[in-house]
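Justification of resources, computational component.

The compute hours requested in this renewal are based largely on the per-chain cost of generating structure records like the one below. Each record pairs the submitted sequence with a full structure-token output. That output is archived, and it is also reused by downstream analysis tasks.
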Amino acid sequence: MSLSGRARAAGTRARGTVRAPRKARQSPPASAIDGCANVLDFEAIARDRMERAFYDYYAGGAEDERTLAANRGAFAEVFLRPRVLVDVSRIDTAASVLGTPVSMPILIAPTAFHRLAHPDGELATARAAGAARTLMVASTISTYSLEDIAGAATGPLWYQLYVYKDRSLARNLIQRAVAAGYRALCLTVDTPLLGCRERDVRNKFDLPAGLCLSNFEAAGLDVATMGGSFAAYATRQLDASLTWDSIEWLRSETKLPIILKGIIAAEDAARAAERGVDGIIVSNHGGRQLDGAEATLRALPRVVDAAGKVEVFMDGGVRRGTDVLKALALGARAVLVGRPCLWGLASAGEQGVARVLELLRQELTLAMALCGCPNVRAVDRSLIASGWATG
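The structure output for this chain reads:
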């Protein structure tokens, strides 16, 4: 059977793994989505519609989930200093990330297993990103192959890469990403081992029958032999020996821009800049790795200062347009959002993701206007109340 045939068959089987009736897996009436006032409303719909173990996989963090909560809580601690009597009759949210123009400084973060939320999975997410004229970062552990995602996309893509003990697998993924037209490699550096996600332990989380790690299947691996839970598989495969020298190895494998995802410490940002990386994503893996790690918004200004001219991005806890504005003011070139897009996907497929992105765009536009910022170039640290501009 062809890869596309297996994907269609897998999608058919996957629908049977969800507790709700099949009819409930279809998009809810438009009125339910139209009634969402903000992206948090989508989470309530997703929680109701998803299998508990799948929802918890998306929503949960490591151990006591302190970092998960801190990511969100940090935004509540930052206050803005709006400027007045500025012409804000027109607001321009356009930005540029590593030379790629986007309609807004809001990108889609790499997240795993989109078909747990909706049968169209990553394909729907990619289409919504393209319609919003923004960028999606596709995950190594996606439920559609990187080629399928690229085929569905109408906008720019980056590819998130885990490096496994078998470097030939990483080489295969890199070569395929280049061939498929991805514009950058986003190397995740905060996962030498998988964090302890206790919700998944309690739920005995694993992929349901019919879903698999499609990029590995396309690489010719027998996914049926991977065996055991996802956590056990990841523990066996992740390369805990990865060091800064691995950046040079990656450079030898590709000419694509290299972004490091998972930096919190300013010292690591400085080393990344010395190694000539093209971008840094301030990230603690959405609170899913080291519980007790610093909130990303708090770390952001110090990383920006240490990174010099390297473009810095941020993820973790972004739920509002004002969150985006605060991150931009503290030096981020753009933010990446993960869970909100998954909630939108679970709520209404492509339409849900598109609506999440549009709500964030509308909120950012309003926040910029009320702060006297007619474009993203006008956003700087003077917008942040005293005490946070240096982290």
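The two ends are 54 Å apart (CA to CA). Residues 3-16+30-383 form a domain with the TIM Barrel fold (CATH 3.20.20.70).
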